[in-house]
Every structure is written in C-alpha cells, then in structure tokens.
Design goal:
Oligomer: heterodimer
Shape of chain A: globular
Number of strands of chain A: 12
Distance between the termini of chain B: 22 Å
Structural class of chain A: alpha/beta
Number of helices of chain A: 6
Structural class of chain B: alpha/beta
Largest interface: A-B, 48 and 42 residues
Largest sheet of chain A: 9 strands, mixed
Order of helices and strands of chain A: EHEHEHEHEHEEEEEHEE
Distance between the termini of chain A: 15 Å
Helix content of chain A: 10-25%
Chain lengths: 217, 219
C-alpha cells in the first residue's frame, strides 16, 4: 500500500530550490491540483523539467508566471509569452532540448544509462556544447541523463499499490518521469483498491510510485 | 474561418504527395490543413507527437475530451485503429524510421535541404519542440511555406542564415508558387502554380533552381 498524502505533507516534499519533473504536454496530463498547491505556497526557486512551459494560466506555466521557476529544461516555450519575456530579460534560465532528446535524457537516468546517442541536433547549434560520437560512420550527439528530486505525475487511475493507468494523450511524459526522480507523487482522477486494475492494463508499475495525493488526507 | 487561397493551394498540393497507408506527422499551422485536402480514395495515418496515431478531425462542439488534443493543444478525435503511447514511443516512431512523412513550416529553407524553423536569435525563441527530431527522423521531409516572407524576401535560399533545425534533411518544398525537390544535383523546380511563370518563380527564389525541360503545373 502506498501512502496517501494531503496538501500539507505534499508541500513538505517539495522544498524551495528543489528540482521538479512535471508530466504533461501543454498541460494535458499535468497534475493541476499539485501545481496549484505549490502556487499558493511560499515555495520558490524551482528547477522544472517539463515538455513545454504551457500557457500562463495552465500547468507549469502558472509557476513561471508567478516567478517561482529559476530554470526550466524544456522543448518549447512559445505558448507562454511570460517564459519568453523572463528568458530574454535574464530572469529565468531556459535550456531548450529537442522533445525526443528530452524524453530520452529522462529515460536514460531512469534506466540507469550514462546517456544516449541521438542523430537529432547534428549540424545545428546543439553541437557546440555536446560531444559528437561516431558509430559505424554515422554522427550522433551524446545526451546526458536528467534526474529530479521530485516527479509530479497525473494519472487517470491509481490503485492503492501505486499502479497507474493514463488516459488518451494525457500519458505523454508521465511514465518516463516515474523512473527518473527520487520521490514520485501522483495525482489521480480515480483512486481504487489494489487488485482493481488488471495487471495487463497497468502502464506504470506501482513500485515506481511513492505517494498518491488525496485531498481528503 | 477563411483560409488564404495561397495557403489552401499549398495544403492541397502537399495532400497529393501521399499514398494510401502512409504514416504522416503534420506540424502546427498550415501543415495541419493538409489533412483536409486528401484526394478521394487516399487514406493516411496521422501521427501526433504528443502520443498517438489515428489523429482524427475536430470533435463536434460539446464533445471535446480534455485528455485528447493534438500537439497544439486543440481538441481532436482518434479514429478506429488508432493507438495511444508515451513520449518515448512517440519519438521512437519519429526517429526510428517509422514515419513516412513529416510536413513542417519554415523560416528559411535552402537548396541543400537545410531547414531553419525554430528561432530568430534575440527575437523569437519558441524552442524546437519536436521539429528537430521530426526533420531528422522522418523518411521524407516536406516543407510547407509561403514563397517569400512578409517583407517580400525569399524564404527559399542558397544557404540558410538562421540557426538550423537540421542539415540536409528536406526532400520537398511546396510554396504557393512552386513544387521543388532537393536532389543530389541541387534544387529542382518540378512544378509551378498555373497562374505563374518559370521566370517569375525564379525571380522570387533566393536559391539556384534547376529547371527541367518539362515543368509541370498545379492549381
């Protein structure tokens, strides 16, 4: 059985200056309740790892608009003018990664690998601060692993053992991030008893999950 | 919403490139429109990089599902035969050679097949999103772009000046004036818009064009 945690315990797990992986693609699949709790707290100076910086009023975009993010590793900031503004004025650090590279860097840490070799970015400015490695005559960039202190995930369904089912296109980065953070916290639409989910249908195994958020705790 | 006839013309011409069963990723904006103009009898499978195949049309008002959007966060549907997956599988499909075509926009594109479409330093820095992986990974890269930018300067060049998305990956460039193919010999003008002339297209192009004896027409 995984511990169910309420708002107070949740905020104890996300101290200021910690690094957060946050699931979601333009906020679809982002745990908005968890983001909202951080937003309403005095916690700040986070490093965020998320596919994109969403919109100013959605997902991690809300944390950026509230100036709670010091650095973001992401693939796209174009939908949140506030990220671009803070980036150009030097208020936020932005490390842009190709989307597939960002996914593989997260997986690399989560899978215990020293990095991944990708052809994406060869011949571009990304070559400037990465090692180029040739394999069988083809050039690749060495991309290093990415980890976080805490992963904030959104699932459709979680059983009390932490097994997760995602829904539709809300899956995206969530299963990867479950592998790559010290503490993994899930916000689920439905929390069900252990055994209620057919093990064949589980998308993220419960052993990867540490806490399930419940407003009732 | 009314669509500029030039943009519709580009989408219409690109839609005729595909064969039955091709797996295609359409970028946000003009490339998305391509799906509306597939010829009768041609059915392709659309891949959406946020995690599924079988991307379907916009749902009827009131039946949107907040968990089901395209890569631009617009509500969409999934067709029978489609499948959902995570971002790792999505980009394995892209980079692993399982995508027949990607259709993307451009800030600049050049005769060697280089593409710049993700940033203007100091001005416009949205990030590359999935564009670098799509350009490198798709078997064929199709660029959908206006022939010239808002200042009237050509977007099809000898050499891109902006930071590159990828090098030597572009295969086909379609504008409102021309259908061009990048070949080992250079950029070939395969077809022009029926309302234009080879001379006018050449003048509006910053690249060196190879003009075959027969240049086709499209409408």
């Amino acid at each position: 059985m995984k511990a169910l945690i309420g708002p107070k315990k949740f905020l104890d797990l996300v101290p200021s200056s910690s690094s957060l992986m946050v699931g979601g693609f333009l906020a679809v699949g982002t745990p908005e309740k968890l983001v909202g709790l951080i937003l309403d707290s005095d916690k700040r100076d986070f490093t965020v790892i998320c596919n994109d910086s969403s919109f100013p009023d959605k997902g991690v975009g809300r944390l950026i608009a509230a100036r709670k993010v010091r650095k973001i590793y992401t693939s796209h900031i174009g939908t949140n003018p506030e990220t671009g503004r803070q980036f150009l004025s030097g208020e936020i650090e932005v490390e842009l990664n190709p989307q597939g590279t960002l996914a593989e860097r997260i997986r690399a840490f989560g899978a215990g690998l020293g990095g991944v070799l990708t052809p994406t970015g060869i011949g571009t400015e990304l070559e400037k601060n990465r090692r180029v490695i040739e394999v069988d005559g083809r050039k690749f960039l060495l991309e290093t692993p990415l980890r976080a202190d805490v992963a904030l995930l959104k699932a459709h369904m979680a059983d009390r053992s932490g097994n997760l089912v995602f829904r539709r296109s809300a899956r995206n980065f969530n299963p990867l991030m479950a592998l790559a953070a010290d503490v993994v916290i899930v916000e689920a639409e439905l929390i069900v008893e252990t055994g209620s989910i057919d093990p064949d249908q589980v998308m993220t195994p419960g052993i990867l999950v540490d806490y399930i958020f419940s407003e009732e705790e | 919403m009314s669509i500029a006839p030039e943009r519709e013309r580009i989408a219409r011409r690109i839609a005729r490139i595909f064969s039955n069963g091709d797996v295609v990723n359409l970028g946000i904006g003009m490339p998305t429109m391509v799906g509306n103009y597939l010829p009768e009898g041609v059915s392709i499978i659309l891949h959406s990089e946020n995690g599924f195949t079988g991307l379907g049309p916009t749902p009827a008002p009131g039946s949107e599902d907040p968990d089901l959007t395209n890569a631009g966060a617009q509500p969409v549907t999934i067709l029978p035969g489609g499948a959902f997956f995570d971002s790792l599988v999505s980009f394995s499909i892209i980079r692993g050679g399982h995508l027949d075509y990607t259709v993307l926009g451009a800030l600049e594109v050049d005769q060697e097949g280089n593409l710049a479409n993700y940033m203007i330093p100091g001005k416009f820095v949205p990030g590359m999103g999935g564009a670098m992986d799509l350009t490198v990974g798709a078997r064929k890269v199709v660029i959908a772009t206006e022939h010239c930018n808002k200042n009237g300067d050509p977007k099809v060049l000898k050499r891109c000046s902006l930071p590159l998305t990828a090098t030597r990956e572009v295969d086909i460039i379609v504008t409102e004036l021309a259908y061009m193919e990048v070949t080992p010999e250079g950029l070939v003008l395969k077809e022009i818009f029926e309302g234009s002339t080879v001379e006018a297209v050449t003048r509006a192009t910053g690249a060196e064009l190879i003009i075959p004896d027969e240049v086709g027409r499209f409408s």
